[in-house]
Structure formats: structure tokens, C-alpha cells
Amino acid sequence: MTPNAPPTPEEIARAFALQQEHAAAEPRDRQSGAAIARRLYGDYLSTLDPEAEGPKPGLVDFIEKLAAKESVTNADRGPHRAFWSYESKLEGVEKPVPNRFLAKACGQTRGLQVLEDTPAGHRLNGYFLGNEFVVDALARHFDFDPEELDAAHGAAWDTLSDRYALATEGLVIGFAADITADSVSARPRYRRSSRTPTSARRASSSPRRCLSTLTFRPTSTRSWPIPPSAANCGWETTTPGNPPRNSP
User: Fold this and answer.
1) In this predicted model, what pLDDT tens digit does every residue of 150-197 receive, in sequence order?
2) Cα 21 from Cα 96, distance rounded (Å)
């Protein structure tokens, strides 16, 4: 199977199963939220040197270091990287397919890198820092400012997303029915990158497929966004029945 082949029925079924697994792990009360908050705080304390002099780094510093230093690549997967946005309506499937979990499902079967499955992404995702019960527990038991946590959480994912994108060496496989101008996937995330896209091939504009492929030339420092339409950036685009074309 090629990396950008349409999702199989098995991968789609696995995507829904992964979505259910994630929902089941999400804290739903104060007790479960406190358990994750204690685990997070314990992980933070384990990084402190009791013999170090001077001020010790705080929990925000721990989150920032996780995002800045932990690996954004799975050693047991290939060079191609998955990116996702929102959900897709696929032919023959009643419910919209959540692209976050479709990317994870295809990552498992095709050996794609997926941010949430990397060591850094998996760890940060597992802290559920956007969950109200985890935030409440951190505020009540560890005197943590919810607004400071929200800012640190958002900044951490921004950092991880940028590092993940910059680490691209193979193809970019995009799981998205469309990429709107205000979506995360449309943000410039290759600043100071040595890789810039030279072509983009939409697998199809029909509901049957939701994958895109970008290829890279490793000799440029131009910053670039993933745009609402590949044609807006002058990338080479192809759609079924049409030859490649370059926009101005």
C-alpha cells in the first residue's frame, strides 16, 4: 500500500475505535482528574535535582521543556509524516470520520509518523491539560493558575507542531477534507526550515478520498504555510482527469 492511498474500511473502523478509546480515557469527574494531575506533578518532581542550588524550575518550565526537547519522531516508523485537520465525510461511511484518529489509524498500518503518537506528543496528550477536571485539580491541590496553564498548554502544542513539521524528511500525508485559512494546518510552521514544498498532489477532491501529498526540496529557507488551496502557493496540483498545473 502506498502511503497516500485512500483509507481502507479497516483503517476507518480503527479510527472510530481509537476515538472511543480516547473518550474513555478522558477524565469525567474530579477523582479521575486529580489522578492525572498527581501523575503530571509526580513526573515534574522526578525531574528536579534535590541537590541543585538556586530557584527550581516550575511546572510550566517542565511542560515547556517537554515540548522543546522530547522526541517528535517514532524510531519504529518510517520517514513520511501525517498531518490532520477536523474531519472528512467518506463515501460509504454514515458518520464523518475524525481525521485526528484516521491519521493515527493509518499511522499504525502504514508506518506514518503522527504527532500524537510520538514520544513528546503522546506524553503531552496523556496529561489532558485541556480537561476541566485536570485543570481544577491542578488549581486546587497544586496552586496552579488555570490561565497560566492554558497558555502553557497552547504554547507547548505550538512548539511540538513546529518541531514535528520541521523534522519532515519524506512525504507529508494530509488528512483533511479541506484546509481553511484559520485552521492550525494553514499556519506557517516551517520558519527557518531547510525544506520547502515543490509540489502538492491532492489525492482527490471527491468525498472518497481525503489524503494529500507534499514533496520537499531540501535547499531553501523560505517560510511557507499549508494554504486553503494548494494553487494559492503556486504548487503543482493534480486532480482526477486533469493534468498537473502551476498557478501564478
Assistant:
1) 999 999 999 999 999 999 988 888 887 654 444 444 444 433 333 333
2) 17
Question: What residue spans of the chain are helical by DSSP H?
Answer: 9-25, 30-45, 59-69, 99-110, 119-126, 132-142, 146-166
C-alpha cell at 66: 517537554
Cell readout for 71 is 522526541
Cα 213 to Cα 237: distance, rounded to the nearest angstrom: 10
Considering the entire predicted model, what is its pTM?
0.73
Contacts by 128-132 with C-beta closer than 8 Å and gap 24+? 128/26, 128/27, 128/33, 128/36, 129/40, 129/63, 129/153, 129/156, 131/26, 131/27, 131/33, 131/36, 132/33
Q: Within 13 Å, how many C-alpha atoms sit on residue 31's CB side?
A: 0
Contact 238, 219 (CB under 8 A): no
3-state secondary structure of 39: helix
Q: Which amino acid is at 99?
A: N
Residue partners of 98: CB distance under 8 A and separation at least 6: 15, 16, 19, 87
Of residues 239, 162, 164, the one with CA closest to residue 200: 239
**Phi, psi at 170, each rounded to 5°:** -110, -140
